[in-house]
Design brief:
Number of domains: 1
Shape: globular
Number of strands: 0
Helix content: over 70%
Radius of gyration: 20 Å
Number of helices: 18
Strand content: under 5%
Largest sheet: none
Structural class: mainly alpha
């Protein structure tokens, strides 16, 4: 007798419901734990954004959701994440970036390029293959999983290498998010400096919200802008790598043609939406009645997306990928953080 398809398969329009419901449950748990923190200690030492990542990762580590959960989890981790970031643009003003000036922008570019070069060299010295070292370097220097996913097809990376690089950057990225507010406090950084530090070291845009959130609104705003500058560098990096690989292929196989990189990959639409809303808000063209609802919606969707990101991380992958990758990612993160701190001193913000 032929097996009947599952409910999501019979109703394609509802395919995301199980995964989104799971993410919503994790998010609700995170919000309740944050509320409990406030009631018992007076402060939310770990905000719901961070708690959602941790809870999601713990769930995924001890229980693998059935396959029909995956589309909803991916929807939360990607689509809802992008919508949340785009909506957050309605609350951001470019005044913070303008006040920082050209030296900060140049410092961001130098930090990203230096981080990629240093991480790649460390990987090669420790014995990682070229492509694995490059995946880790780009993920570490730009934006974690998104950078790895964008770079992988350009350099023809193996699936195992991609999965390993993503697993480690995701797990260690969570550690950076949790540690960043405590590091900023220990180093006596101002809200602006703490936000810049988070923007320069944390992997993903929404994770900057979690890392900078405890430091205040100013930290979140400038941290997000700094992070977006890093994300925007993904386009030039991918383009350069594509040209390099095309040249190398042409050298090996003269008849080979170069790869093409689409504009959608170079500048994701959610970044354009974020920048567009931020520009409208910066020039006073966005009604104030829109700003508060956009802020609230962005916050809730971000918690939901962080739950989805956490549900994609199996903590056991740390032991499966090997000590060399652990070493490279950890040392690269330490170097990135140190470089960011030195840069803050160099431009007089620390």
């Amino acid at each position: 007798m032929k097996a009947q398809p599952s409910f999501p398969a019979r109703v394609p329009g509802l395919a995301h419901v199980p995964g989104l419901a799971l993410c919503a449950a994790v998010s609700a748990g995170a919000l309740l734990l944050e509320h409990a923190e406030r009631l018992t200690t007076g402060n939310a030492w770990l905000e719901a954004l961070v708690i959602a990542i941790v809870l999601g990762a713990l769930v995924r580590t001890f229980w693998t959701p059935p396959r029909y959960f995956e589309s909803g989890i991916q929807c939360a981790a990607k689509t809802m994440l992008e919508i949340a970031v785009a909506l957050m643009g309605a609350t951001v003003s470019f005044g913070a970036m303008a006040a920082a000036g050209v030296p900060l922008l140049l410092s961001i570019v130098a930090t990203v390029i230096g981080a990629i070069a240093a991480s790649f060299l460390i990987g090669r010295v420790i014995g990682l293959p070229d492509k694995m070292a490059l995946l880790v370097a780009c993920g570490n220097g730009i934006c974690g999983n998104s950078a790895i996913a964008a770079v992988a097809p350009v350099i023809d990376a193996e699936c195992d290498d991609v999965a390993t690089a993503i697993a480690f950057t995701a797990v260690l990225g969570i550690a950076v998010v949790i540690a960043m507010p405590f590091i900023a406090t220990y180093l006596h950084l101002s809200a602006a400096a703490g936000g810049i530090m988070a923007g320069l070291t944390v992997y993903a845009v929404p994770q900057v919200l979690a890392a900078a959130g405890p430091m205040g609104t100013a930290a979140v705003q400038i941290g997000t802008l700094i992070k977006l500058v890093r994300v925007l560098m993904l386009g030039p990096i991918v383009a350069v790598l594509s040209l390099f690989m095309a040249r190398r292929a042409a050298g090996t196989h003269p008849a080979a043609t170069g790869r093409r990189v689409s504009l959608a990959r170079l500048v994701p639409l959610f970044i354009l939406a974020f920048l567009g809303l931020a520009a409208l808000h910066s020039f006073g063209l966005l009604p104030e009645a829109v700003v508060a609802p956009a802020h609230n919606a962005s916050g809730l969707l971000t918690v939901l997306s962080m739950a989805g990101l956490g549900l994609g991380v199996n903590l056991r992958d740390v032991t499966a990928a090997g000590p060399r990758v652990v070493f490279v990612v950890t040392v690269s993160l330490l170097l990135l953080g140190t470089t960011a701190f030195v840069m803050l001193h160099a431009i007089g913000l620390a």
